[in-house]
């Protein structure tokens, strides 16, 4: 990154939109704006696509996290800044801030590092898609799906402090098959699902069948209270709350819970889950994962944008914003190559500190008084972890999601921990290895680490100190279960930043959810704010889209 | 496909279907032309293929193709390639037809026919079946065909059983898969295949398997049907059982002929008077059996050697019409069924109690105690589980199953310890059926009948309860009334007859004021001479068919029923017809029928009553009854002395 290669100057120098950073939201907007006929320049300082949403090999991953965790002073200003018409605009140095902290990478074995290039580690992991997700619809609608291939996630579990997995009975067939549920529990759970289905069916119909519908009072009450009212046993309640409705905070202790899920939202999440099961005939369950990692998604949207005329330049840092002296409006950016590019609209990566435009009457004080508008959520962060091991956590399945509900690891655990294990058949690691992603919301890095480490402790045999190279499984003395040995791990805490719409707009950081729904909603909203007149990916009837209208390419 | 609502046809569809019909008619007439002229050329076959691919229901076309195949085979030199291509062409046509309608009987049958010729690959059929069963896993045609192919290919039942498990795990709402499972398991259990023995172990696993379905979705009936099959496997003895007999084991029977025993003081329960010199022998089995004849049944008798007994199966036995001499000799009293004519039996008068007889009626049971312990344990377990389910959810079929389980349990307990036990659950079962009638009025008649059976079991379960229904009939002077004990089961709301095995000794039965629509089962009460069926819901003479087997019936009251009120007896799905083959052609029906009578009205009555030796008939209060009909009956039944309370001259 330091040695900026000499690029031929970008032609033209005027664009409708400049997008800085190739994270998923930026790529979607670049593709949407290109589809709407806008001229778009899409820049990234990295040599790869995806930014905070990328999938990287081991070395790239380590250096990306490190580079984004240290405070970077602004790039050295090329002396050419004065070459521009200084009378028209001023160049304002663009500052970034660290998005990651407390990065802790531990290597217990040389194996993963030696095969660094065979890894595609998701920076924003753990992430999966629900078959009925809006993201899947968007990929199909935009045509991005033609560049992607998916595989089913095989199973979904709830995990406890001893590392024991229990299947999440998420469908009628799964309830039937699951022998860990008692007969009465099966009946209660299925009856609850039927109640929800009846409610959704009645809500769909024009005339309101009040019998089947859940009352408004119930819909507004906390979901956990509704589940209690339905007399569901604790085990099932916890499965519904944390493994199907994907609640983050302990719903049972409402006084400390930061995000109480109400029944309406809970039911919507159940509906998403259920419509995901069976949306694609060859999908095994509700969830799918893109082959070669989540980073493929951003690349697919970038390719889509490129087809529509968007210009891509990687390894090109933006060093300054060009602000109009008179109005204080942003007019463009100055690239590390020294070239100035002009555009009315600018969309930047969340790691940039975006200054607020200042009234034109005080142009002099503008740089100093600039305020940050894309605020970092100071109260909440995401702790993420990646583990690499040689054997699957569950012997018979390779790709699965699981959750540690609140209080399942230790009594004070207030947040759920989400996890996804992906095997080599999804092209994310060398064959014979598995990658485990973990994440949890947390108040600070200390709390986040504590949560993740408790989970890791329950799952792995940690290598004996002094013999870190021993990669074979350590047999516990009582020979009960052999837990996999941890080969390599990375723990890091990520800031949560919401995108914003201003004269310089910015996108969001990856959130703490498994899917992209919240992120995508914000992105669609942002697009409409930026282009109120334009349709977000208009339905096309061009022949290039006709051939792949049969749906998602899903390997079974 | 299941669960796809039918759409109302649009106007443009109507036009399209008219055009299709036109095309089909043209093809059809060409096909018939070819068929009649035995034209089996390539072009002719092409026409039949076109017809079948548009309309797979054309049976004639399938038959035509079969003839064509046979014709072409006989005319081709036995070149294996030619033979093979002939059959593959047939398979292709069938496959295309099935695409049009995968539930076409004709198409599936044709495919079976082709495969059974043995010139085609069976493996390809399994792939085809996979496709069909993926499209609709409940398609029973495909399941039938699968059984056929599995047998043809010799796929072991264990493999096929695994396949049913797989499909049930995918979606357990699959009657066909459960059914095939029961068929396969029956084979495996019967043949004691390795891993499928002992039966108890397998059944326990199957119960566990089906419980998952019952609890996951109790409203889905497919699992319950399998559960019922399991229950049947549990309670059904492996060999047929002789449940009861008449005469009872060890009882003394004195058969008189020509009244030579007149005046002898005999117990009315052990003596049997027969003018014809015959007496009935009733062997009541729990299921249909074969091979009951003089070589398998031995009657030990003091005065008669076994070889002197002449056996006549009831079905073929033709009652000799009484000679006119007898008819004249008899001066018959009229039997009145009024309450004042009966008085209750005194339980303390033991000398001629029918109850002494009752105890001997049941056959001693002996079978392995270990097995029955398992049976009882299984039933108790199932009862507990269904109760648990019903405590969670109100479920019709669950209640019905509980009722069946409780009855099976009671039957099993009483079977192991006869008469020492009261029907502990019968009150609960009656309540369950009452609940069901309310919950499910559509099937209330079914529940009503089940309730009747429970009531009858209550009555017949022990001597005390039975005695409450036994009466002396006051008019007992006549010798024709062998014993004057009348079993009175009147006013019980019965809609069905049951527990007949306990009642084989009954000669006089009062079933009046019930809700009987059918009397099936009554034919086992061979001693029955006096029968009151008045004030019931019998709606046709055909419903009286069982009476034809009662050779000793003399007095019959069918007054105040609904005979003639309905054109069709919906209960029996029968309508009267002279074409009905229950009547032989040797009967000159017209001789009896008044000229202006509606033949169909009388045909049924004629078919039932001809050859009866009734002396008394009450038929008033039925829609069919009028003077004309009465005079018809008098002609058909020459032995009648009393009709509707009037003496005939």
UniProtKB/TrEMBL annotation, chain A:
InterPro entries: FAD/NAD-bd_sf, GDP_dissociation_inhibitor, Rab_escort. It is found in: Cytoplasm. Residues 537-556 are annotated as: Disordered. GO terms for biological process: intracellular protein transport; pollen germination; pollen maturation; pollen tube growth; small GTPase-mediated signal transduction; vesicle-mediated transport. The keyword Ribosomal protein does not apply. One of its GO terms (molecular function) is Rab geranylgeranyltransferase activity. Keywords: Cytoplasm, GTPase activation. The keyword 4Fe-4S does not apply. Substrate-binding subunit of the Rab geranylgeranyltransferase (GGTase) complex. Binds unprenylated Rab proteins. Belongs to the Rab GDI family. This is Rab escort protein 1.
Automatic annotation (TrEMBL), chain B:
The keyword Protein biosynthesis does not apply. The keyword Transferase applies. It catalyses: geranylgeranyl diphosphate + L-cysteinyl-[protein] = S-geranylgeranyl-L-cysteinyl-[protein] + diphosphate. Its EC number is 2.5.1.60. Keywords: Prenyltransferase, Repeat, Transferase. Catalyzes the transfer of a geranyl-geranyl moiety from geranyl-geranyl pyrophosphate to cysteines occuring in specific C-terminal amino acid sequences. Belongs to the protein prenyltransferase subunit alpha family. This is Geranylgeranyl transferase type-2 subunit alpha. It comes from Vitis vinifera (Grape).
